[in-house]
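INTERNAL AUDIT FORM
Audit reference: QA-55
Scope: verify that the stored structure record matches its stored sequence.
Auditor: D.O.
Record contents follow.
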Amino acid sequence: MSTQSIYNYRLVDDQLITGGQPTAEQLRAAAAEGVVLVINLATYSPGHSLEDEAGLVQSLGLAYIHIPVEWGRPRPEDFEAFERAMAARPAGKTLLHCAANFRVTAFYSLYAQKHLGWSVEQAEAFRASIWAGSDYPVWEQFIAALRAQIAGR
């Protein structure tokens, strides 16, 4: 078992992995692969989320941050909390996940555009690796509004 088996796994760089909801075994693999922080953007959903993900992650010696972003109502405050979490990351690998890597690729593409110098094209290509063919107007509006703010800073 490895982190590469996480649903919609994406390796961003040697310090960041993104994906959908990992299993307990995949979280154990993440710890074995040197992950030191898990950031979860999904809300808790019985049958889809791990019962006590925070407890499991912490029992593995990893830090855990949960920013529950409601799928139908992403908010600028959620993105701001995400920015703070990313800025405070400890040295070492981070596993950034949600239910299916949609929230994560949206937030990370915006973060990378704002803080890492990614172009709109780079950010959109990263997001499209998960979002291609999807139609979620609430998210498209949210992303467009944040991109406008980023462009205007």
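Auditor finding: record pair retrieved intact. The CA atoms of residues 37 and 63 lie 5 Å apart.
Action required: none
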